[in-house]
Write a structure and sequence with these properties.
Layout: H1 2-6, H2 13-19, E1 24-31, E2 34-40, H3 49-57, E3 81-89, H4 106-109, E4 120-129, H5 132-147, H6 149-155, H7 169-180, E5 184-195, H8 198-211, E6 221-225, H9 229-235, E7 242-245, H10 246-252, E8 283-288, E9 296-300, H11 302-305, H12 319-333, H13 345-351, H14 384-392, E10 397-398, E11 409-416, E12 426-431
Antiparallel strand pairs: 1-2, 1-4, 3-5, 3-6, 4-5, 5-7, 8-9, 10-11, 11-12
Length: 432
């Protein structure tokens, strides 16, 4: 979906003649303990187009604009050896490459892991949207194949003579027409490796280039030397290119599945826009950035926060962080809050981040603290009627599960006159 939507970057004819047609660069760079996926975009591209296309293609994905260039930093940190190769098509560009589907880049991305200190790897795919003339050229190639012109040329015969029929002609025609059914991109694929040792660099480049063998079909990739390869990768100039359809390009320039690279996890849920009636002030839950270039606080009113709020999420997704932020907002605003934490992590996170002046209003009850124990008398109070109502509910009998032998405790209540005349009877408890 990404490359289908980005094909809208194709400019009208008169603009292409004057200003040219911009191209994009899909890049995967890796260093020890770090793998980055980036999309290089020229400034001619309108802002917001790339961000919306990424959000629509991968649920939960977001883009961050950065000025750093990981490819430019390759080979600049001390002495080392650099290997660069370019992958070109083995056959004519109208024949499609294989599209295995699934996580087709798993073999190539395996070469991005286990890098030693001083090693770096880069995969660069330059892509420029092609006009409809490229699709017409593919359809003409299909007609030529069906007429036998390609096979007559290979046999060295004149084109006006009847060629020998080939049983693979119809399969080739269907493959070419299938590629012509989708929008086309002019592409160029390069791979670079930087390593402190020459044998390591050559081994890495062979492994990365071999990872693209999964795209072998009616067409495939072959390695070619690139004079001044790293300089060309830094310049990102698209010179010699070949046609790839949108499905073919999406197989190569795509985010891998979760687990393809150690430590890589893909978001499973996509972002949703904030309801218009959601308040901006109150107890702020976070910042909504669903709309590209527009951020607004998402809050819940103090009155609504007094009702139940259920926070669900896996370990490490930020549940405790959200609750701590809500408690700290109450402390900063002078409101009361009660935090019950069976583990103690949430309480510790709140205590170290309390606003200035809130220490005098904090009371910490720790059951494990035997020195500063806090007693809670449920029968204490000036309102004797409330004490009586509260204590009247404490009458129960507990036995072991299943009614078998075990400890038995019964609590009974006996009423006796309270001190003073005219008062309600005070409850007394007898436990056995």
């Amino acid at each position: 979906m990404l490359w289908m939507g980005l094909h809208a970057l194709l400019r009208p004819l008169w603009i292409r003649l004057i200003l040219g047609q911009p191209h994009l660069a899909w890049e995967v760079t890796a260093r020890p303990e770090l793998v980055e996926f980036s999309l290089w975009v020229p400034r001619l591209v309108p802002p917001g187009l790339i961000e919306r296309a990424v959000q629509a293609s991968w649920p939960g994905a977001s883009t961050v604009e950065t000025s750093s260039d990981p490819i430019s930093s390759m080979g600049r940190h001390g002495p080392g050896f650099i290997e660069v190769t370019q992958l070109v098509l083995a056959e004519r560009e109208w024949f499609p490459i294989g599209t295995p589907g699934g996580d087709s880049l798993a073999l190539a991305l395996a070469g991005l892991t286990g890098l030693a200190d001083g090693e770096a790897v880069a995969i660069q795919m330059l892509a420029r949207p092609a006009t409809s003339a490229s699709r017409r050229r593919l359809r003409r190639a299909a007609r030529s194949i069906r007429a036998g012109a390609r096979f007559a040329w290979r046999a060295g015969r004149a084109r006006d003579r009847q060629p020998v029929a080939d049983p693979a002609i119809e399969g080739d025609v269907r493959a070419v027409l299938g590629k012509a059914a989708s929008p086309q991109w002019s592409c160029s694929l390069r791979v670079a490796v930087s390593s402190p040792r020459k044998d390591w660099a050559r081994g890495r480049i062979h492994g990365l280039a071999g990872g693209f063998a999964v795209f072998e079909g009616r067409n495939g990739f072959r390695r070619r030397r690139v004079p001044g390869g790293l300089h060309r990768m830094r310049a990102r100039r698209l010179a010699r290119s070949y046609l790839l359809s949108v499905p073919e390009l999406a197989e190569i320039a795509n985010l891998p599945e979760s687990g393809a690279i150690a430590g890589l996890e893909r978001a499973a849920a996509k972002t949703v826009p904030v309801p218009r009636d959601l308040p901006r002030e109150g107890k702020v839950l976070g910042t909504a950035d669903h709309n590209v270039g527009v951020e607004r606080p998402a809050a819940i009113s103090v009155e609504d926060a007094r009702h139940h709020i259920h926070v669900i999420g896996e370990t490490g997704t930020g549940k405790s962080t959200l609750l701590a932020r809500l408690v700290l907002q109450d402390a900063e605003a002078g409101r009361s809050a009660v935090v019950i934490d069976p583990k103690g992590d949430l309480v510790n996170a709140v205590l170290v981040r309390l606003p200035e002046g809130a220490e005098e209003r904090i009371c910490v009850i720790d059951p494990e603290d035997k020195i500063s124990a806090v007693g809670l008398d449920v029968l204490a109070g000036d309102d004797q009627d409330l004490v009586w109502i509260t204590s009247s509910g404490c009458s129960r009998e507990s036995t072991s599960p299943g009614g078998g032998p075990g400890p038995t405790m019964s609590c009974g209540r006996r009423a006796s006159p309270s001190p003073g005349s005219g008062g309600p009877p005070w409850p007394r408890f007898q436990c056995c």
